[in-house]
Design brief:
single chain, about 290 residues, alpha/beta, two-stranded parallel sheet, 14 helices
Amino acid sequence: MSVLNSINEQTYNNIKKIIIDSGSTDDTIILAKKNGFLVNQISSSEFNHGATRQLLVDLSEDTDICVFLTQDAILASPDSIANIIKAFDDPQVGIAYGRQLPHKNAKALETHARLFNYPDSPEVVSMNDLNKKGFKIFFCSNSFSAYRRSTLQSVGGFPTDSIMGEDAIVAAKMLIAGYKKAYVADATVYHSHSYTLSEEFKRYFDTRVFHEQNKWLIDDFGKPTGEGFKFIKSELLYIIKHDKIRIVKSISSIFAKWLGYNSGGFFKKMPKSLVKKLSMHSFYWKQY
């Protein structure tokens, strides 16, 4: 209900509201309809990060800008949607994403992850910034994002064959095509996760699968290694300063990510049953 309330409180109210419900078993559908949403239902087995979002695009033919929000992201300001839409005043901007703040009860590790990836200063980038930004130039997140619908369609829409990273793939294609990507720091949303070590392993296993499936990203934009080392150094310094007691959890988390990422490089050689157990997105392998 917090997500729905945060949407209802937005100052920008010229919104066509659509929810894709992928097999919920609670009151999601009832509450969504009460709050003015069109509800499109699919089975949980049909869910696919790219295909499901493309379905939303296809249901929005009369829309210029498509804004995406996941079910666990709560808009942090009444102006969040208005602010992210302002980014498209620049006709060259094809994609924009907002700033993710840690939930109010977030612990040190998830707080650092949000501070590292979502700073308080806005940024607009193009391929001219590749040397400065490297692999991170196409980083974005569909937890809270917006796309110029015509531009999205011009680069082929969302991919349906990638385990994750549909947002990054589209951002990279738009940049290559000559468009810009905007990070809108005053379009804020509460969104953070507290992962177990097992979940960290699985998440980074899937990240490596994503990189293996989309090697053109590394060919065109460089390897992600440097950014990974920056994150590790930043996390350790943050934990030492703010929550020393979690240093063991931090080191264990770093190892779980490393092990998961390296294990994912061998997914093609593994039996499908094992891959499903090691993957956070086990539903994907039913379609793969």
